[in-house]
């Protein structure tokens, strides 16, 4: 069971990375990036590295994802104002 879960996680990581890079819509790409970060957090936890997993969840998925979403919102707002 453990090997099957690890293989499924590896496939999900590869799929998530590919979808993040191949998605033409920037908002969906950021959402895929956040999901990829959460999957990577799970992979680090499976590799018995809880400190790296917590850092990945907080910085990789959480903070970076929030900053990217804020940047998208700022760019869309700036486009409507014409500035």
**Number of alpha- plus pi-helical segments:** 3
| Amount of beta strand | under 5%
Alpha-carbon distance between the termini?
Answer: 56 Å
Radius of gyration equals: 15 Å
How many domains? The number is 1
Biggest beta sheet attributes: none
DSSP E strands, number: 0
Q: Low-confidence spans: pLDDT under 50, at least 5 residues? A: none
Helix share, percent: over 70%
- How would you spell out the order of helices and strands? HHH
**Outline type:** elongated
Structural class: mainly alpha
Mean pLDDT: 92
Q: What does this entry look like structurally?
A:
There is one protein chain. It is built from three helices and no strands. It has 83 residues and is mainly alpha-helical. The chain has one domain. Helix 1 runs antiparallel to helix 2 and helix 2 runs antiparallel to helix 3. The chain is elongated. The mean pLDDT is 92.
Topology of this structure?
Layout: H1 2-22, H2 26-46, H3 50-81
What brief labels describe this structure?
single chain, 83 residues, mainly alpha, 3 helices
